Amino acid sequence: MGESKPRRELPITVIDSGKSVTEEAHAHHHDHADEGPRSLGQAAPSWLFVGDVAISEAEIAREMQFHRAMTPERSRADAARALVVRELLRQETARLGLQEAVQPVGGEAVEEACIRVLLEQEIENRVPTEDDCRRYYAQNPERFHAPDRIRVRHILLGAAVDDVGGRFAAREQAEKLIAELKAQPHLFADFVMRHSDCPSKDEGGELGWLERGQTTPEFDRQVFRLRVGLAAFPVESRWGYHVVSVDAIESGEELAFDQVRQRISDYLELQVRQRELQQYLQGLQERYEVRGLDAIEAETA
């Protein structure tokens, strides 16, 4: 007998999504035959299969809009993997005849209800113990602090994202203002009133105390790396360029175990559930052979 083929892991993300597995499996399931690429009356080609069921390139193309990535190849691979997971679950619910046994809840589709019942039957919910939570708290002290925060003033020199000339001019003006403010920092409020395109100009450019995630991501990433004082370079965002002054920085205080116990319990429970889901999907792959996914993912290398 030849060597058995090693099981291939289908990575899925549950912890980071904030959605139930059922929602993840169905949130992007659309049956619009008129969407996606057309091929002059011919059916779209299929190189991806779950058992005897083909997943066409048209289906993958439609799914890609829900899996944004740095490259089209990565987006295509993520979309293909999501469709494979959904098809594995669909075929298993059909094998077990769940369509006749389940009752949809609320606005659930029948297929969605079938997958929900399937996972409820097959995946055991395990609640972490108090000792489990305390052990994780002790081993990861850096994770349990109140959010860091900074107090910021700014001057926004506005320019649309697609206005190349305007953005160049905004950056140039920001650099000039920074050079002047280094020599005369007391002019900041005056420059705010004269130059800023942000409504905060009426409050002297004050944005107040900010925690991570409260502003646009690109602005957030940059300002939380700054030290107290005038930033030496313009901070770019989708709105234009900002002259930024950080007036204060406060590090978050350590949180007591009782303040984070439920958060830890939820996280550990999701970790265990994800591992069990991964093992369950691997088992389904042994029942319904997946072909073509390796080739699609190889294109991302």
TrEMBL record:
It catalyses: [protein]-peptidylproline (omega=180) = [protein]-peptidylproline (omega=0). Its EC number is 5.2.1.8. It comes from the Bacteria. InterPro entries: PPIase_dom_sf (IPR046357), PPIase_PpiC (IPR000297), PrsA_foldase (IPR050245), Trigger_fact/SurA_dom_sf (IPR027304). It is an enzyme of class 5 (isomerase). One of its GO terms (molecular function) is peptidyl-prolyl cis-trans isomerase activity. Belongs to the PpiC/parvulin rotamase family. This is peptidylprolyl isomerase.
